Amino acid sequence: MTEVQQGRRRLILPAPVGRIGTSQPNPEPELLAQLSPDTVMMMGDNPALPKMPPKPRLLDFFRARFDDFTVTHLLTSAKRALDAGQDEKVVTACLLHDISNACLVRSDHGYWSAQLIAPYVSEEVAWAVKYHQALRYFADDSVGYAYPESYRAFFGADYVPPEYIRRDAEDAKRHRWYMTSRSVTMFDIYFFDRSETIDPEIFSDIIGRNFKEPDEGLGFDGSPVAHMWRTMIWPNNFL
Ligand SMILES: [Fe+2]
Ligand SMILES: [Fe+2]
Asked: Distance from the CA of 109 to the center of ligand 2, in angstroms?
């Protein structure tokens, strides 16, 4: 796979989920018109991206694929949970809570992130990640969690989340794992200016105990979500 398409011009069609609804026209017809024996649609390793090892592990994605902003956000959330003496399942959930935003998809990111990690973490960690998205919109005075100021800026002060979010937040509040997911929302803070550098390696022991790295590498273990990890390894594949 890695040495395919050598010596040819390789065209990249951006994923529709990130383009549709924007001012960018669909470039597909124009790209297809450029195909020739010397010009192909990209498949396999994109040399513009850092090379991934043949059996990628979680932190390889942090280093070689995830965007800096999301990495800082995830590491900071997890570090704050750790410093607050939270248990490892909360630290793990914080470390992974927005993982789909880093290289895959943003819309419904809690649901995508939970699905991406579900085969490798405890059911409770995946559950906490799934429901943090909905719980973020709802204050809980009993633990000092207020509606995020950042959400007023992101969505407008009058934004009301849709029905499925309200319903899922209600379900989550009644669930025995509510506080695990609520804890994720409490450490889910954006640090726009003051981004201390956190070495992801400080979490390697916690990852070792709470994230089952598949022997074949993420993307190659035949799990129901392996294709999602492969999509992050080869985000520019045409098909
Ligand atoms: Fe989130
Ligand atoms: Fe977050």
From this structure: 10
